[in-house]
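_Per-residue structure_
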Amino acid sequence: MKKFTKFLSLAMAALFAISVFTIDSNAMSSVAQSHVRQLTTEEIQLIYSMFHADQYANMYPDVVKELGSDEATLFSHFITFGIWEQRQPSVAFNVDVYASRNSDLQIAFGDDIIAYYTYYATHVKNEGFRPLPTVLDAFRNNCTIYSVYDFVKGQAGPKAGAVPVQNGTYYPGIESTPGWKAQ
């Protein structure tokens, strides 16, 4: 009952945030804005299972500076803005890495960012064969990572002209990833 109450309060906070906050054209890219949609209660619950407020706060001090560190507020920010901006819900999951390293999912989901989250949340325990969906693991394995928005449903690999967000020589922010050590 305690988990249900906590989830219900988070869902209400999210609804409040969605109704109060407006999406400013400067808040996120036009590509991210074009993907924003209303999330279902089930999607919110699945995404919440992947969210770690303390890690989100550490990764995004700009959000903490503006909104504080309350868990419900941070989750509300994540599902209202952060998820569409491709911010990470925790250090254990990066949607760009997950999409880039799983061509079968690229074909199935294309640029549907929420589909990757819900698939991961419902299948992670049964899928030991998939690579870790972390920036650090992608770096260690010299992977080229594209934005989830660069994938097209029905096609493996990014669309023509897509520019990687991370590769063997370009890996922004990796030095600040917990557990990263220079080789």
About this structure: The longest helix spans residues 2-20. Residues 35 and 68 are 26 Å apart (CA to CA). The chain has two domains: 2-82, 95-176. Residues 95-176 form one domain.
